[in-house]
Target: Cullin N-terminal domain-containing protein
Amino acid sequence: MGSTEDTDNNERKMRIRQFFNAMEIQSIDPLWSNSLKPGIEKLLSGFYNEPNFDELYRAAYTVVLHRHGQKLYENTRELILEHLVEKVRPKLAGLSSTEFLVTLKQTWDSYEKSMDMIRCILMYMDRVYVLEQKLEPVYDLGLTLFRENIILFSTTREYFNNALREMMTREQHGEILDRTTINDISLMLTKLNINKADFYNEDLQTWCLQ
Model:
């Protein structure tokens, strides 16, 4: 049984290699549209087990090997940005204070895991094109985009401060709150290299550090 499965896997990998070797890579478009883009979209959406990592890595490797690293980097950046603006921002809108903070933390955890997997797929691009051009590695690029387009986005920042202020008021009135999420959010801000003193008011910062 195992021998048959091994044979099938080897034949599949051989077909993948033959497909890429036979291609004359004049454009990134076929590999991007048919393989890399849908694979990265699935990862960003939290479907971690669906993409074929071997095929995605080989596709990215082939693209960079044929000197299309710039286009791959730009396409990846645009795809991540589109995900943040069109899917993450609406998910955070209109929530209660508690729901907002919990959803923000869950969204961040999922996004960070996605970026870690995307980094693995695009490892060859990081090691060759990104290094040569002195650009942000893919994982760091993802953190920058999340910081600038989610955390520092004016509406999100307003929700964030309002949520903390509401929770602070509830605690001051004697309600016992679970500070786990608040502590996790504080760690997220640190990882995103956000100065907490610049991000929220002094009274909120003091309360969060209690």
